[in-house]
What does this fold into?
Amino acid sequence: MSDTFMYLTSKYNKSGLTRKNLADELTCSVSTIDRLLKEGMGLPNYLRIGMGKRARIIFPINEVADFLENQLIDVK
It folds into this structure.
């Protein structure tokens, strides 16, 4: 298990993150997460729980950890 996975697991104490939790980890807004969901790119894999516009979106911690570890950071 990666350090990122262990960090997220201990911080949130659950197996998946909400849109708000993910926004906090990516340092962006929930509306940015919603826009990226609509565009269908730039986010970790997720689970949609329910049907329609009001369905809950859950981002499994292992997917978020993999996503964060594979991001390219441009340091200048």
Observations:
- The two ends are 30 Å apart (CA to CA).
- The longest helix spans residues 3-12.
- The chain has a mean pLDDT of 91.
